[in-house]
Design goal:
binds zinc ion, 7 helices, 11% strand
Length: 198
């Protein structure tokens, strides 16, 4: 149902990774299908700095290795989301995978500023390429800890299936995006009403 290759509609970094593939829809390209589209996806998701993604482009072996890690992480995220939604324990292998990637996430604090405006600020450093996708592993963990499973849903449009976290006030969001599936559903409903009258 989507024309765009790279979908970032999930409203959540972990869901955005999960949404990189939707097997029900042959028209959608898997962003994790090749190093080039994967690096584009990373840029869209603001993972790493410009220098980080430039370094990946300059080193195909590193890009391929990180892509393989991202695919493994995607499987783990899928398992976590499924477990959360259905209310069963997260598979041990998914936890191992998320923790493996999380171990590359270094968050510390630094004392900065000067007289009158000293402050403690959080500093995130990454260690090696795997650190670049560590924020996605953290997002998956937060999804499990903080997201209401009833608001973790897949788009209702036929053949779409993109995941989203419903943050609307009434909690009745049905579409991955109003600009695409929501609008198509509206047009189709209008057409049906029109035909029923005529
Ligand atoms: Zn959709």
């Amino acid at each position: 149902m989507h024309n765009s290759e790279l979908v970032l509609d999930g409203g959540h970094l972990a869901l955005d990774l999960l949404n990189t593939v939707a097997p029900a829809d042959a028209s959608r390209v898997d962003a994790l299908g090749a190093p080039g589209t994967f690096i584009q996806w990373m840029e869209g998701a603001s993972l790493g700095t410009e220098a980080d993604t430039a370094a990946l482009r300059a080193s195909p072996p590193d890009a391929r290795l990180l892509l393989a890690d991202a695919r493994r992480l995607r499987e783990a995220v899928a398992a976590i989301v499924e477990a959360h939604v259905t209310g069963v324990p997260v598979p041990a292998l998914a936890l191992v995978e998320v923790n493996r990637v999380l171990s590359y996430r270094n968050v510390g604090v630094r004392l900065t500023g000067g007289p009158g405006h000293y402050r403690l600020s959080g500093v995130t450093t990454t260690s090696g390429p795997l650190g670049l996708i560590a924020p996605v592993a953290e997002a998956a963990a937060r999804l499990l800890l903080e997201a209401d499973p009833a608001r973790l849903r897949q788009c209702a449009a036929e053949g779409c299936g993109l995941w989203f976290l419903d943050t609307s006030r009434n909690g009745r969001r049905r579409w991955c995006s109003m600009a695409t599936c929501g609008n198509r559903a509206k047009v189709a409903a209008h057409y049906r009403r029109h035909r029923a009258r005529g």
